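Page 37, top half.
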Amino acid sequence: MDKKVIGMLSSYKNLDQSDWLWKQTPNHFGVWKNIQMLATASKPDFLLLYQYNFPQPQPPLPWWQNLFTQNSQSLPTIPAVFKQVPSAKTIYLLREPPLEEIVEHNQSNYQAAKQYCGYISGPDQFAPIPDYMPAIWYVNNSFQELATGNVPEKQKICSWITSGISRTENHRQRLAFLKLLQENGVDFDLYGRNLPAWFHSLGTVQNKWNAMAPYYYNLAIENYADNDLYVSEKLWDSLLSWCLPIYYGGSAADKLLPPGSFLRLPSLDEKGLNYIKEITSTLDAWYEAKDKIAEARQIILHKLNLLEWLADFVEQF
């Protein structure tokens, strides 16, 4: 059977490569079961809109300005590929959390997607089809290495990869917790971009494996923890790197992963601080969870994988 080619459009930077997601399959050229993932395909069989921000019509101009402006009410240009793929085979997956500051924007994208997409989903109750986000990851090791490789040598206790973004209240809460950990001398290594000068970070990393695999524990702290659908690559990256995640997020992870494969950070305050100190004071928790981590990794790679989700979707046609 011929493989169905899946093209992709995204508003995320750097997701316009031909080989986007190729690392999430053991096969060459993005092949997984009945599909081939080729983000840049000009005439795909299916089209994935992945966190795609639809162009919005411009607000009406004053009547007097219309006298001097032609086509002032024209809509922004829609990519030609939209016209080449039937709506039933066009998928819209939104992956940003329903933060108060962007809920209206997310709803606008859902509404616009109805013109072009037969399947529209996101990790919130505003979506036409509320559902978990299929897993992607930013550990750039090969699929085969992740699926069959041995536990990497562990040398250090705990790491955290995050950013200094502060545009929402949730981001600011995370930064305040980072400051609390620093002020109380919690032992962990920090990596990430645009981090505040008051914390000496180890900088950015191209492959998250390099900042996770040598550590026993990893702080996996979501930007949003208030519903039962949102869970992001922060958890997948940590587990695929054989860390025991100390996870702060909603209850979606409890439904998707085996019990004991991650730890629950209770809160981003003194209670959470003390919990991290207690857990990272020994390696006992990691050794107790080792088998569960192995089980969770296979679930991420084979069941939660976005390519597996796409293959199941294509199978319906």
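Page 37, bottom half:
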Amino acid sequence: MLADAAAIAFVPSTHLDRSRAFYSAVLGLELREQTPFACVFRAGGTMLRVTRVDELRPQPFTVLGWAVPDLRATLADMVAAGVTFHRYEGMPQDEDGVWQTPGGDLVAWYPDPDGNTLSLTQFA
């Protein structure tokens, strides 16, 4: 039924101006629209709606991620822009916080300004 329909991604935010700055200036996404209710970005071919909420309890799992061709280069650019990557106790991550899956994919996680966990993945 929805196989050919475009997906829309949603991320909650308690402060849209702060989120707009992060998603546009730091991550480089194109801001398409901002209303009192959401910032709408273009992320590749996907619409991303960063939606205003009054309260937010960040979840302990990834809510949004990007597949990138060169994770290390993207990570270095993001660190230079002030992004801090998560380190998880008991997970074998390297000095940059990158975890390699048993299949050889590389994954790194980082928070947005509201504490939502985002990720980068370089598929093997």
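Margin note: The two ends are 31 Å apart (CA to CA).
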